[in-house]
Amino acid sequence: MERAFRSRRVVTPDGTRAATVLTKDGRITALEPHALPIERVELVDVGDAWLVPGAVDTHVHLNEPGRTEWEGFATATAAAAAGGITTLVDMPLNCIPATTDVAALEAKRAAAAGQLQVDVGFYGGVVPGNAEALEPLADAGVLGFKCFLIDSGVEEFPHVDAGDLRAALPHLARRGLPLLAHCELPVSEPPTSPDPRSYRAWLDSRPRAWEQEAIELLIALGEEAGCRTHVVHLACADALDAIGDAKLRGAPLSVETCPHYLSFAAEEIPDGDPRFKCAPPIRERDQREGLWEGLRDGRIDFVVSDHSPCAPALKHLEEGDVAQAWGGIAGLQLSLSATWTGALRRRVPFEEVVRWTSSAPAAFAGLKHKGAIAPGFDADLVVFDPDAEIEVDARELKHRHDVTPYAGQRLRGRVEATWLRGERVYDRRSGLAPRRRGAMLEGGAT
After folding, report:
1. How high is the pLDDT of residue 446?
2. I want to staple 184 with a disulfide (CB 3.0 to 4.6 A). Which of 150, 159, 208, 297 is the partner?
3. Triad 168, 174, 179: Cα angle to 5°
4. What does DSSP assign to residue 307?
5. Distances (CA, A) of 246 to 222, 232, 253, 351
């Protein structure tokens, strides 16, 4: 199938320009002048709307098999398509079994078969005692490995210590795959509060120093082993000095943050609203602004959702019990608009948002044909109206559950249509039935 896509604002690696994008068999074949005559090929002309590469979200919890009542492949990939995300990489925990060996990976792939509206890759997990399972997982096609330096919240995925990582990292270094670490390391006794509804009590129970200590340990272990290391969901801007120093001396380090850390601030979160609970916590306003500065100067590499929903009962919404609620934010479908909303307020160009949400995470995951509108790349294309203003109606989200802190928020930017390898998988106006065209990605493949 051949198609041509035309827009006066096509975001390419070389800048934004009026162009016609030619595609064939799911790949982009050429970028041509906007006025190129088109014959015998279907033309999709989006006028002044932005034509951007599909976003690549390398941090999602799809939870299937085992906790499909929290989220699943069908619902999450539908939400991704509606949010302009054409590639997801699934974390190895919150599913049962956790993806800590090849048998568990195959169980996850079997559960995903026939359900995917966008492309999905997988991570393996590093847990105590599974070092010898890591290279077989690499051979089976995982894109990297995740670990926790603190209790993960689920018993199937115990946290690791420095000794566990020293056993694991040489295996990852041999394969050139990154270690993604949840960086909180308890190094002090946090204060306790008698009020389970208090957001401040949750924030104080996971202090900034825990993030900083964990990040410094991760940097040291990565340099020692010569292994790529990656800080997931950075919430603490105070850690950026250590991150910047490590990058300056050439440490194999990368860093992500998330839209909820860029959008919300602890001072604005009401007590008794567990929708905002996540780990690390959403921190104070100065930390949020520091994260934006880290993105702009390159100490933070990209933005991903860390979509981590649960069954609504586990959020303890009726009681407003922040202390007992599951710690995770549901926001996959809204992550592109939320990031653009914050960027626009800070006069950050839209092209930077595209880099943070498409090309940089694709490069991190080794997905060489994702994340750009250029010849040879997959024809993963999104029609985006950056000027549209939306009020989030949680009932319209395609996630399995509608519990999200974004409900009622006014955001800028709206996805009008999403194309995966040249085939339409979402259209806001036509309400097309989902097309299950997503593929399962393996290391180095698209």
Report:
1. 34
2. 150
3. 45
4. B
5. 10, 16, 7, 27
CA distances from 110 to 13, 143, 338 (A): 36, 18, 33
Calpha distance 334→395 (Å, rounded): 13
- Which residues on neighbouring strands pair with residue 254, listed in sequence order? 230
| pLDDT of 136 strictly over 80 | yes
Give the contacts of 250 (CB within 8 A, at least 6 positions apart): none
Q: Is the pLDDT of residue 81 over 50?
A: yes
Q: Cα–chain-centroid distance for residue 39?
A: 39
3-state SS, 166-195, equals HHHHHHHHHHCCCEEEECCCCCCCCCCCCC
In the numeric block, which tokens belong to residue 99?
């993806």
What does the pLDDT look like over 22-48, one tens digit per residue? 999 999 999 999 999 998 899 999 999
Question: Residue 445 and residue 121: Cα distance in Å, rounded?
Answer: 10
Task: Judge: domain 54-370+387-411, CATH 1.10.3720.10.
Answer: no
CA distance 71 to 91: 13
What is the average pLDDT across 148-171? 98
Residue linked to tokens 């997982």: 137
pTM as predicted: 0.97
32 vs 37: CA distance, rounded Å: 10
305, two tokens: 């959702």
d(CA 166, CA 356): 31
Exposure string of 197-211, with b = 16+ CB inside 10 Å and e = fewer, is bbbbbbbebbbbbbb
Q: What is the C-alpha separation between 382 and 15, in angstroms, rounded?
A: 16
**Rounded to whole angstroms, how far apart are CA atoms 154 and 360?**
30
> What's the pLDDT tens digit per position in 269-306?
999 999 999 999 999 999 999 999 999 999 999 999 99
Tokens of 301: 């590499």
What DSSP line would sit under 86-140, residue for residue?
A: EEEEE-SSSSSS-SSSHHHHHHHHHHHTT--SSEEEE-EE--TT-GGGHHHHHHT
What distance in Å separates the CA atoms of residue 136 and residue 341, rounded to the nearest whole number? Answer: 42
Residue 111 CA neighbour count, 13 Å, CB half: 23
Residue that has been written with the tokens 């991903």 in this structure: 304
Q: Is the pLDDT of residue 434 over 70?
A: no
How far apart (Å, rounded) are the C-alpha atoms in residues 33 and 284? 47
C-alpha R_g of the chain: 21
CB proximity list for 25: less than 8 A, separation 6 or greater: 1, 422
